[in-house]
Amino acid sequence: MVKAVVGANWGDEGKGKITDTLAEKADIIIRFQGGANAGHTIVNDYGKFALHTLPSGVFYSHTTSIIGNGVALNIPALMEEIKSLTIRGVPMPKILVSDRTQIVMPYHLLFDEYEEERLGGKSFGSTKSGIAPFYSDKYAKIGFQVSELFEEERLKEKIERITQMKNVLLEHLYHKPAIDAKELLETLYQYRDSIAPYVCDVSLFLNQALKEGKTVLLEGQLGTLKDPDHGIYPMVTSSSTLAAYGAIGAGLPPYEIKEIITVCKAYSSAVGAGAFVSEIFGEEADELRRRGGDGGEYGATTGRPRRMGWFDCVASRYGCRLQGTTDVAFTVLDVLGYLEEIPICVGYEIDGEIITDFPVTVKLERAKPILETLPGWKCEIRGIRNFEELPENCRRYVEFVEEKIGYPITIISNGPGREDIIYRNSPLNKVVL
Ligand code: GDP
Q1: Other CB atoms within 10 Å distance of the CB of residue 324
Q2: Distance 42 CA to ligand 1 centre (A)
Q3: Predicted confidence band of residue 48 (pLDDT cuts 50, 70, 90)
Q4: Please, are residues 276 and 306 in contact by the beta-carbon 8 Å criterion?
Q5: Which of 39, 45, 87, 318 fits a disulfide with 301 by CB distance 3.0 to 4.6 angstroms?
């Protein structure tokens, strides 16, 4: 059986923590899209870790961690990440990399940087991890699959062909140094040697695992609003962030995905540019940013301060709908304990009209938030393990959000640790997982 853990919003919803918690009862955890451009932060018995490429199940010795074919694989970054775990006492995880996964090439990182530089003030706020140039090449059919590293003559010929083309852009568009094909080839040989022990036919492996009744977790990166089709295009990422893509990016039949756990944060945060209707500013935002997450809302990969906002029912309902949500995991609820009153965005006003269905980007840019205010609970809720034991105003906040988004909140996270979790029976006819 396959479960997906995905984000409803702009990313950073706490998917890493939820995956890490659910991984205890899973056999296989798979990353199926994205690259080392975002990170999951996980706090467990070994300490606090920011994972960028490895799935969040790597801390359990009973799990297999898979990098699926849909991922943008930065091989040196993966090797560094493995080292950063083992150096701190985490047992060497069992890792498999699909032979169809494509490789982030050194020039993808450069092109990302040069393009942001060229765009100046109109840039996308890229993390410069090479993700957009990588996926552009993948769909232009000039990318490199891991399996190609093992065919020396073919690789050499393809590198020569592609560097010729890239060098025209480097010289004439970006005015930057050309790529040296020989040097690049040497780098790829190093990539080949370091990745070789992990490479396998992942879809075949999964086919067998499912026949044996194994539990598979798909771990999404970012969230619905960053999906290139259904998100706030063009301020999106370059690979699909939806659970449906999990089937493609891992190589599984879509009908095997039985549970879709969509992670929603109890307030909003976003990185990068683009419309963010419930955004707050100034001291109000600074305080939420400082208190948010586990040690503040700053990017796990870049350290950039995140943009902050109140919970957005319009965006989250849409985010859950597009994921095909069976369960909502509602996270970082503990953070809101300092507020006297908590505003929630329940609708958008666009050109004098009030809407509750998330609009297309061109309209979104004109949307103003309609806020309702709920009373806060003004106390610490970490350590509570039962929904009924939460303060009344806190339960009301959860119930209000659940009613507005229309999907059952069956998991509540009230702290960064594995044990900070509350399972709840939802009135939307859903019992705990
Ligand atoms: P992801 O990319 O969706 O995995 O999210 P991030 O890891 O970037 O951001 C979530 C942050 O919130 C991390 O620092 C987590 O340790 C932290 N976190 C997750 N769940 C909770 C929670 O319930 N309460 C608090 N206080 N922090 C949490």
Answers
A1: 15
A2: 7
A3: confident
A4: no
A5: 39
pLDDT digits (tens, 9 = 90+) for 95-116: 999 999 999 999 999 999 999 8
Alpha helices by DSSP H, listed for 41-151, are: 75-86, 106-119, 131-139
Distance separating alpha carbons of residues 371 and 344, to the nearest angstrom: 5
Known active-site residue 40: yes
Q: Residue 430: which of 290, 327, 357, 302 has the closest Cα? A: 327
Q: In angstroms, what CA-CA distances link 280 with 286, 287, 345, 347?
A: 9, 11, 11, 16
Q: Is 298 exposed, middle or buried (0-12, 13-18, 19+ CB in 10 A)?
A: middle
| Mean pLDDT of the residues in the chain | 94
Give me the domains of the chain, ranges plus CATH numbers. 2-73+206-423 (3.90.170.10), 102-196 (1.10.300.10)
- Other CB atoms within a 10 A radius of the CB of residue 315 amount to 29
Pocket test for ligand 1, best of 46, 217, 294, 413 (most atoms within 8 A of CB): 294
What pLDDT, on the 0 to 100 scale, is given for residue 49? 87
Separation of CA 419 and ligand 1 centre (Å) = 13
Q: Kindly tell me the burial class for residue 28, based on how many C-beta atoms sit within 10 Å of its own C-beta (0-12, 13-18, 19 or more).
A: buried
Which member of 20, 40, 312, 334 is catalytic? Answer: 40
